[in-house]
Amino acid sequence: MTSRFPSSALPELQIWAPKAHSVEIELDGPRLEHGTRYAIRLDGGDPLPDPRSRWQPDGVHGRSAWVDHSRFRWTDAGWSAGELRDQVIYELHVGTFSAGGDFDGVAGHLDHLLDLGVTAIELMPVAEFAGERGWGYDGVLLYAPHHAYGGPEGLKRLVDTCHARGLAVILDVVYNHVGAEGNYLPRFGPYFSHRHASAWGDAFNFDGLDAPEVRRFVTDNAAAWIREYHFDGLRLDAVHAIRDDSARHIVADIAAAAHDAGSEQGRRVWVTAESNVDDPKLLDEYGCDAQWFDYFHHALHAYVTGERDSYYAPFGSYEKVEAALARAEPRLVTFIQNHDQVGNRAQGDRLSQQLPPERLRWLAEVLLTAPGVPLLFQGEEWGAGTPFQFFADHGDPGIRRATTEGRIREFAAFGWERSQVPDPEDPATFERSRLDWTELDRSPHGELLAFYRDLIQRRVGSLAEKT
Asked: pTM to 2 decimals?
């Protein structure tokens, strides 16, 4: 049974479509309740997913499904993650972290993370993106946890389980652009800017006409991840690419929205910004709690590998390493590997595929004894032999071709042949990037894991003694 209602008949749905003459809600059933599929029709046109959809069971082109958040029984009352400066963060990609490739699969490996001694996990973006597999930075339905990962219920189970076991959870969110496939927002309103461009996709309209509603769409999204899924923090992707000439930058509003949502629940929430420039405004004016410290990575990477291409050109000397250590402080997130610095290499090769074990141990020791908030990338702790390559799963043939060809052109400038660059759209590229958990029982992986475990536990113990 399909029913249609004017949008005014269902006030719980917030639909912003300023240029539409009519807005209808099409329900697969007589009423809106948990699991009910629905779509939006503007001026009698095609059924579209809700821009604020909390659940897309059939992907970006399918109907939305209503979520009754009150159904989930949280058990984390009284949970507090503490101060960001005291954390050891573990960044992971839900789809490649476990054999199952979903939120429950992550939960199945929490024993490993707890034994390792990390205190927080950071999920790469999970907002609904095209297809079954991808990095998540081309999300288009920003309120909906990806269907292939387990949707809203799976994400809530993961966060609740993490809290029960003493782990904080941070979410990577993307507000500098949206993906190409499944982006229906332009049909609803002027969500995107004609004044600013993004190298990756449509840039949000944060400072033009109708910007207040667009800003509210994004700040509400930041707050929703905190309220509805109990995240302990947000990592804001590439804020240097968020263009906003308003008197108050949108990053300041995002940080405030996240902090306020946490305060409502009596919890401290962290907001971390990633930027390719050291911008003190992010911390001192915009209210972010910390910033990713690329300088630290570049200095150590160039020093131990000898690479001097591209942004490594200014680095390579031990003096740069000393400078990185001198600048590290509790409001900077430090790392020797992360998804970008591994996955944006042509073949996604890790440091463990480039360096001998003694060099890996030296890097780990520098990272985990230095000031700052250390971040590990999945598998780093055992010197994973699997790469982490760039992968996607677009259904649109044109976007598939553009993704594949764009990746080849990107690395042709560095001398890589076409056959040497993995095709992002090939499922084998994704499969190669899955962690191989059997490596932990083999040498030299087990020895490096023990070394990391000892360093982390000594660091966490030392911080606990100081407090």
From this structure: 0.97
